[in-house]
Amino acid sequence: MTRLHFASALLPSGWADDVQVVVTDGTIAEVAAGVAPASGDERHQLAIPGIASLHSHAFQRGMAGLAETRGTTADTFWTWREAMYRFALAMTPDDVESVATLLYVEMLEQGFTRVGEFHYLHHDHDGAAYANPAEMAMRIAHAAETSGIGLTLLPSFYAHGTFGGAAPHGGQRRFICSVDQFAKLLVASREAVGRLPGANVGIAPHSLRAVTPDELAAIVPLAYGGPVHIHAAEQMREVEDCLAWSGKRPVEWLLEHAPLDQRWCLIHATHTTPTEVASLARTGAVAGLCPVTEASLGDGIFPAREFLDAQGRFGVGTDSNVLVGIADELRQLEYGQRLKHRERNVLSNGPGVSTGRALLDGALAGGSQALAQAVVGLEVGARADIVTLDTTHPSLAGRRGDAVLDGWIFAAGAGAIDCVWAGGRKVVEGGRHALRRPARERFNTTVRRLIA
């Protein structure tokens, strides 16, 4: 049992002072406000809930910053994708584990306490299955266990190169499965993560580019009621190709042909019409927004204000992991809307409402829904995912309540996070994960060899 005392904490009911939290077996067992610290309590100034990164491709952390030199033609998502394929084809299972371990350490240091790993690097270099079809999934699970981050594994079904069941690109050979292979992969993946406390498994049909309608219908039941994530409408070329194939835009097609509901998360959904925005919000599905990656890849700007006005739900993900941080994603989300609408505080819920608070609340709720976490936050029954902020940071000094969140998200930069508990385990103290040094050393050795 661990007893923590916070001078101030963000509870589901709002900010409260003198909050004692009792953690038992990784779960919050008691929460009491207005309580003086007791002997044996570990004391901190200010606590907020940990947040989920609902969309991550862990292996891509290894190539962060390696695609920033202009080519001979216009650089786009599609040229970046070729570089990504080359990097993925070179990685061994050991490489994937070392890269994912550092990534998850970094996520925890930035306040992410759970990751939705959209995992599609399944097979050996030649595309043949490993003896254990979940070899790569097992490496992701090891990285999560070592770092302490909560894991929602989302094995991805990827079968084709583009719409209409086209043959896959040679660079995609490590991703490709038949429906039968995918079913076996799911069984093995559930075994791989089964011993991790609080871990769960969903499915991720990669996109309508990579999955035919018949295949989509065949694999959705394999989620067994768990989360279903799919990339949709990330790029205008994708929208145009989908129109040429089906006469429908990607989100429009999914709304008409897929059983969208609260289990689903549409990743990006960047290029959507007002009708699609309103209809998607009504389904209860989550929009999985990855603002830093979407900016990095030149995807475009999601119509977030319109979606939230329609009572839509969103979460944030780190996607390509070119930069990892809750504050970075939420700030980029708001700043994109400011540039688009030429206004300030666009995603605030109304007059007098903190934009930082509105963003944090939305990301907490949407991320937990997308990763099938029924109880989250600083409340009884939730996994003990807790983040403390350093109130001596210059951008947080003298602030209380929501003003602390605004200072963190919009002004603090690095160094505002002090301690992090993930599943009741204190993994970050003084802003540093206990495994930062060995994780970096192993990562650096791996990446030096891959780059060479």
TrEMBL record:
Protein name: Formimidoylglutamate deiminase
Keywords, alphabetical: Hydrolase, Metal-binding, Zinc
Pfam families registered for this protein in UniProt: Amidohydro_1 (PF01979), HutF_N (PF22429)
UniProt source species: Bradyrhizobium iriomotense
Amidohydrolase-related domain segment(s): 47-427
Gene3D superfamilies the UniProt entry points to: Metal-dependent hydrolases (3.20.20.140), Urease, subunit C, domain 1 (2.30.40.10)
InterPro entries named among the record's database cross-references: Amidohydro-rel, HutF, HutF-like_N, Metal-dep_hydrolase_composite, Metal_Hydrolase, Metallo-dep_hydrolases
UniProt superkingdom: Bacteria
Residues annotated as domain Formimidoylglutamate deiminase N-terminal: 1-45
Cofactor(s) listed in the protein's UniProt record: Zn(2+)
